[in-house]
Amino acid sequence: MRRIWLIALLLAAAVACGEGNSVTTGVPANPEEPVSVPASSGVPNPGPSMAVAVGNTLSPRKIPWTGTEPVADGLKINWVSGVEPCNSLDRVDVKYSDTEVTVTLWEGTTDKDAICIEIAIEKATIVKLTEPVGDRKIVDGAK
Q1: Angstrom distance (rounded) from CA 14 to CA 137
Q2: With CB atoms 3.0 to 4.6 Å apart as the test, which of 40, 47, 82, 133 could cross-link to 87 if both were Cys?
Q3: Going by C-beta distance under 8 Å and a sequence separation of 6 or more, which residues neighbour residue 16?
Q4: Alpha-carbon span 125 to 50, nearest angstrom
Q5: Running DSSP on this structure, what letter comes out for residue 31?
Q6: Are 77 and 128 in contact, with CB atoms under 8 Å apart?
Q7: Nearest 5°: CA angle at 89, between 83 and 95?
Q8: pLDDT, tens only, 34-76
Q9: Sign of torsion over alpha carbons 104, 110, 115, 116
């Protein structure tokens, strides 16, 4: 009788664990079936890391940005980059025309001997504008 209870208990536990897909191993039962990854890990996203231009970086290069939003005195520019000191915001150039406001981000390294891991980090910076955007299109100068 104990064996029957033990088997029933183990079977009930196995069924309960399978319900609700609370555990995902990332390995599909069928290798040809795509793996689904949960959209949220349950860890809150703290948002982008705020960056301030440091200037005088080594080998600055244009970096494409991923989005922009208006703020009190200008624009908040978002992009994805690597860790500092290998990927430091050097400067932000803004050019105005009658139809466009072109924003160009420049990144470089502040330490030529640094060893940095390759990991993507969401970054943002606030760009103060000298003219209102108005009806002009905001353009990425790195694209």
Answers
A1: 57
A2: 82
A3: none
A4: 6
A5: T
A6: no
A7: 150
A8: 444 455 556 666 788 999 999 999 999 999 999 999 998 899 9
A9: negative
DSSP annotation of 6 reads H
What gap in Å lies between CA 78 and CA 122, rounded to an integer? 7
Using an 8 Å Cβ cutoff, are 139 and 105 in contact? no
User: Regarding beta strands 74-81 and 121-128, do their DSSP bridges make them parallel or antiparallel, or are they unpaired?
Assistant: antiparallel
- Within 10 angstroms of residue 24's Cβ, the number of other Cβ atoms is 10
Render pLDDT for 115-141 as a digit per residue (tens, 0 to 9). Answer: 989 999 999 999 999 999 999 999 999
Q: Which residues contact 127 (CB under 8 A, 6 or more apart)?
A: 74, 75, 76, 77, 92, 94, 103
- One-letter amino acid of 91: R
Task: Give the amino acid at 102.
Answer: T
* Amino acid 21: pLDDT: 41
pLDDT of residue 47: 80
- Residue 42: which region, alpha, beta or left (left: phi > 0; alpha: psi -120 to 50)? left
